[in-house]
Design goal:
This is Ps1ly2h-25 protein. Its main location: other. The protein is an all-alpha fold and 91 residues long. It has helices at 17-23, 29-43, 47-55, 58-66, 73-77, 84-89. The chain has 6 helices and no strands. The longest helix is centred in the middle third of the chain and has 15 residues, at 29-43.
């Protein structure tokens, strides 16, 4: 993170991309929804990150979430299919 801390003080860190993709398979739907939302944030306008998500298998997990009946995780996943060019490139 971008803030300073003293020794012994707890500090949050941003999760690495593989961790976020792994969270898409978490047992709690709220964690899945937050991971999908965070991926949306990371991928917005960044083709390099989109390619890395694809390489790490994230697309499959996002598509799997589309079938979930839990409100939230499915809605967060909808950002990906709405980008037709992305799907054409990574099919």
């Amino acid at each position: 993170t971008a803030f300073r801390r003293t020794p012994g003080e707890f500090a949050w860190r941003d999760p690495e991309l593989p961790e976020v993709i792994h969270m898409l398979q978490h047992q709690f739907p709220s964690v899945q929804a937050n991971a999908a939302a965070y991926l949306q944030h990371l991928c917005f306008g960044d083709n390099k990150v989109k390619m890395e998500v694809c390489r790490l298998g994230g697309i499959k997990h996002l598509v799997d979430l589309l079938d979930h009946r839990v409100l939230g995780s499915s809605e967060e996943c909808l950002w990906c299919p709405s980008k037709p060019r992305f799907w054409q490139v990574y099919r």
